[in-house]
UniProtKB/TrEMBL annotation:
Residues 82-103 are annotated as: Disordered. This is PE domain-containing protein. It comes from the Bacteria.
């Protein structure tokens, strides 16, 4: 006979909840990287040969970090959406199976 498989829908619900919480928690780092790490160009000095290079390197790193945080947010959102859809599909299948067994 075929083996039986059971999916714990409660655990999938927990995963979705945790991912949504994590997604919300990522808003703060995103805002900090974007707005709290800005250094004015004048802070790197005046009449300092490398000031422009330092300022540019800072801007590049700030942009890179923003992209990293956004990529993490997108990954978390995508995984959460897929987990939620999977949970719904399992629930639908469970319901269909019960209906078909009860005639």
């Amino acid at each position: 006979m075929g083996e039986q498989y059971k999916v714990d829908l409660h655990e999938l619900d927990n995963v979705v909840r945790q991912l949504k919480r994590l997604q919300g928690d990522m808003d703060e780092p995103s805002q900090k990287v974007k707005y709290s790490t800005t250094i004015p160009k004048t802070a790197f000095g005046k009449d300092f040969l490398e000031a422009t290079d330092l300022s540019s390197a800072h801007d590049d790193m700030q942009e890179y970090m923003s992209q990293v945080v956004k990529a993490l947010q997108d990954l978390i959102r995508d995984f959460g959406d897929k987990t939620e859809r999977s949970r719904g599909a399992y629930e639908d299948q469970e319901h269909d199976t019960k209906v078909s067994m009860n005639g």
